[in-house]
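Schema walk-through. Below, the input block comes first and the output block second. Nothing else is stored per chain. Lengths vary across the set, and this one has 411 residues.
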Amino acid sequence: MPVPALRSAALLCLFLTAAPAVSEDAANLVEALRQAGLQEVRAVPVRGNGALVNVEGVLPGKTADEIVLSAASGDASGCAAVISAAADLRRTPLRHTVRVVLFGGESGGGMAGWLRNLGPGAEERILAHLNLERVGRQGSAGPVIEGSPAMPPGWLVHSVLKSGEAVAWPFAVADNRFPLLAQLVVRSVEVRNGPDSEPFLRRGIPSVSLSDGSLTDAARHEPDARRLDRWTQAAAAAVRRLDALAGRPLPEDQYLAVAGRVWLRRDLIWLGFLPWVLLVFRGRPGRWRGTPADQQNRQMRSYLPGFLFRGLLLLAIFLAPVFAVLLLPAAALALAPPRLWRPWIWIPLGLLPLVFYLAAVGVGLVNGIVSLDGGFRGGGAAALLIPATLVAYVLMIARGRERLPQLPVGD
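--- output ---
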């Protein structure tokens, strides 16, 4: 049963009107967690920074393995959704213990201190971490699973996507307007003010940040009580789906989330391999026996650009499957090279995905969303093979359709 929107709104008002003193603010959060039905509620000052206090409590499960549900205490809407979701989960028999943590500070400080204090083996004990930030915002284009070069594992993204579908709250990955393009951007360059899940991912803990913001919509909108209520349902549904798991599935960070589905590395390879097979059959050289030497040389020169394109495409599909999606339109166009139209129409069409990708990176740089600090982070294979394959595509189209020599009659 969903928690009424009035409860979320009341909690939100509590946080917005809390006294400025750290101790009183922490006391308000402790009381809110207790009213939500959590046990072992406590306020823990961050070691080395007495101005920050983390507040946490647990919903006990059958095992000591934990699912961590968190928000920054400075994020009023995130705290409201997390506490309301915990109150909803209290009525569910749990396999895993659910730990709710409200990290001190707007972001970063309290979380870093909490991670430093984890005991030995704690990383293995935590099944997954869900962090809510900037949720329930008016005017949002939709809920987002935030991304960065350190992407959450594919199984965790899949669980969140499916839990969102179950409560009619469909998530996008990286951006709620241009998700595919945004995923390529965040995988290749540093994201300024990245998601709060990054410190957990660096510790080897599966983690994901859920938000109403995105790369193209970073504005801090006014909160909406009804939207907060939907976030409460979504957060509770995500925890319940994770709680059904016996343990962590095999990790996979080479994936793309498109159309509500996570396309893993093997899926992306098959997606690229099928047009490659068609290109191989289309570009087979004919039988050259009996043809003059000058004709053989001419046909060989015509055949080589297509051979080079197919060879580089195959390497890109296997070595850089995520970024190889930029080559799929060129592969499709190569299956039907221009006959009636000039090849210069086919060339820009094949290069269009790369142009859009570079334009998105440029817009991110101009607006201070991303940075080139650290260079290209998509891997050396992608940096080399994607442009090289497109150069071979341009040469192949510019040479015209490969014409295969025919065996003379009577040979």
